[in-house]
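Supplementary notes for students who missed Thursday's class. We covered one full example, reproduced here. Read the sequence, then the structure, then the short commentary at the end.
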Amino acid sequence: MFSASAKAHKNFHKLRFYTQHTIHRLIPSIILQRQRTSLFRSLKRLSEEENQQLIFRVNYCNKLQEKIELPDQAKSLSSFKREKSGTYYLDLISMLRYFPPELRFCHRFGDVTTVPDAPTFVKSRPINDHNQNSVLLKLNRVRHYYTVKDPYHYDNKLDLLVWRGACHQEHRRNFVRNFYDHPLCNVGDIHQNADGQPWHSHFMSLSEQLKYKFVLSIEGKDVATNLKWIMASNSLCFMRQPRFETWFMEGTLLPGYHYVQLKDDYSDLEEKVAYYRDNPIAAKTIIANANRYFAQFMNTERERLIGLLIMQKYFEYTQQHLLYYQ
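Structure (token representation):
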């Protein structure tokens, strides 16, 4: 069960998300298009290092390198209507409104695990060398970028690895069945289908999980939602090498530097937990690196600028005659 304070905090996070979008929709598109020009000009005020970091993120999320025409079914902003995935729609249209309404685009909402045939705005994509048509944007951010301030110092946390989640996928079920009773773990499946099984467990809030030194991140259908808040906390992230990535650029995370990498079958979990339990300095070093990595995604103005540059590149490479910033 949610504690009253945890539930209130999450509800406020959602309220702020919808309020921000409501206010944004009141701004005429023509004003936003002028702001886009002004934002692009602000690039000249950035240092060379800041520009390089920004360009890297733009080109990482949008890997298009050749001009290509969009298929006939591509939509224009003027014909783009609200869909079932409301939070995805709000995040996407808030960025599209900075551009002329006749520009066309393809999009795919939800947990995307394959690469589209045409350049498409998505939340997630597989990590490989052939994902150029999957253009990443910060979609469904209300769910994927929810964090709370960690009130616990690392040294005062429990010497255990924690995980809670619904095991819809077989790889999650296998993990929980193998480790639910391990003395170094507090893990469990909260899905109702596991009710009555020894690995079924109660829901544990984000704040409760922060009491543990080690937090496991397990991918679901695509990415693991909890990865961001773990890397923002004073706890150490454990996970297998990621297979999918989002705006968070999971494919750039370095094992042993940003997180503790586990074997695909988790056979080294006990060894890794014991090592970092006995080597707190090594654990804190990785946590500090993770915190710095996460921080780059919390600059609202910079995030908006990167998103607009990704879109600008998308429209250019789909041959839609939009003047690039100078």
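Commentary. DSSP finds eleven helices and eleven strands in the chain. The mean pLDDT is 93. If anything here is unclear, bring it to office hours.
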